[in-house]
Amino acid sequence: MDQFSLVQQAIASTFGVDPAEVCLETAQKDIPEWDSVGHLNLMLVLEQTFGLMFDVETMTQLTSVKAILQRMELQ
Amino acid sequence: MTTYSEHLEHALRGASSSQIGEALRPIKAQLSLPDINRLVNRLRSVVAPVITVKLAIVRTYAVELLRPYWMMESLLQGLDLQIYEAPFGALFEEAGLGAAAFHPDVTYFCLRWEDLDPRFSCAITGLSESEQDDLAESAVEWVFGLLSAFRRSNGGLVVFTLLPSCVDAELGQYDAMAPNSERAFREMTKRRLAKRLKNNLASVYFEDLDMLCESLGRTNLFDMRLWHLSRYPFSTQGALALIGRLISYPVLVKQTRIKVIVLDADNTMWGGILGEDGIDGIAIGPDYPGSVFVSFQRRLLHLQERGILLAICSKNNAKDVANVLRVHPHQVLREKHFAALRVNWEPKTKNLMSIAEELNLGLDSFVFVDDSPHECLQVQEQLPQVLVVQTPSTLVDIPGCLEGLPRLQALSLTQEDKKRTNLYVQEQQRKKLAAASVDHGQYLQSLEMVMSVTFNEAKHVVRIAQLTQKTNQFNLTTHRYLEAEILRMVNDPDYVVADFSLTDVFGESGIVGVAIVSGVLSGIAEVEAFLMSCRVIGRGAETVFLRELMRECVRRGIRHINAQYFPTPKNALVKEFWSQNGFQQNNGVYYAEPVRWSPPVSSLGNITVRGQQ
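Above: the input entities. Below: the structure tokens describing the complete assembly.
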């Protein structure tokens, strides 16, 4: 699976939505379950799925699929 | 199977909550959040819990992120969870509104030290001894005030917690030597708090979260990034450990407690196979691997000492096992520690059923511990209500294999619990006497029974509540009560709360019967509860107890007393109790006038009531 599909899967399973609803343009505002609590859940799921470690500032910035993919490219 | 992934995949293939739970044991503490989500999905597809439990959380920090952990733990225990989270920081208002209106079974208070008194935000070590004492007193009273207000409008279980400090003691390593040690101060305050709650409120527990720091370490318990972002304190590991503990309370309220641990012998109580290695070849003693089994037996002994019954179910020659129990110098558990022994070549499932019958306990209160995957699978398949624990293949993990089982937590301890195995031994002695007696009457006389009856005794509240919850057969109304409710009635002049205990030549049975009568003040009373432990059925104790109850009713001015029989699948034996014991009947309601009532004479002669001739 490519990076996008993995992120799509993580977002879909964290928020209980259909993976088809998650595309490259998707951001926090597009998914009702992606509120402030949901966001932290997603951060933890991404960290633990991909073996990453985000600092506080990064966590506040990863509010869209594009931002997440950009951050993952840095690893 | 050794890696995390292998264990996880095995768990994800489980077909029941107990199978999945058993498969998870080696890796549970290290589960990642994505894997917890996968497990919750799997559990949702194979578990259809019929038992609903309502939890309310009153808090001053964020708890929403705990949901996935609550979901997993509750499904593993076969519970359908409904959670109500009170608005952030709402405390006293919550007592009257939101949380109470939800009618929760368990309410958790998730508070911080700073909530108890603003002085906790400053340096505690800067306070003098009398200032510290004052602070502790003020904190304890504040909590007591909060929980009593809550208790007045809510009858469920209450669990009070304090978030551990996320930093080390101010004085660091020197704290242990300091006269005004911060750690000593916190321990003292917690002790005072637990005592105040236990002595003055019923069904309120203090859950000490500092124990999480001890098992995990502060840096592993907290995730400071989440704390600063959202006031939510816990790492994944921390949340797993926390909910693993907190789930004990809904389990206590809704699930059958474990009462019996059935143990295999070979490679469970000792290393090796007795039949092959002989008494001198089995591993049990101060050196590895024997040390592992000594450790395990000691843990089991502690469980037995607090009321859990032990039994042996082993495929061996009975004489060989009896010999080890009697003479092996390093064997910790001896014959007297076991309430039942099945050492034979029969199928273990058959033996389990026979033990259940002998002890008169349901198999749903049993744990079966065995090293053999084959035996474990057979029991799991044929007796799904039995909790099966296969001993870990890594020997050093064996002593802790029963740790952290929610249904084994001792959340209230009574005198009867401590003497339980002894009670079963006494019962076996009575059975021997009965077999040797000419007739039942002679048997009862030889017992020389003495009954003690007490009324409205606050010290008996825990045991009385326990009896109303556990007793199914000799129970006229099957009303279940929590400790809080019993305590309220004990202190209310409108109620008679009676209990009795029996002593005979073999020993004391502890409190074994309860009666609750309401409507005292009006003179027209109602029997809300009348029940007796099945342990003492067949001795005529119920009639003597009823006579003492009626005497008390006369004393309290009750002119007329109504009683009912509410049929259940288990209490058919008391269907005619009221009519057989001097009550008249009118349209399904029984009644009597205490002054005019008299008991049937036949069964009275064998029991003396203490304090009377």
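Note for the figure: The radius of gyration of chain B is 27 Å.
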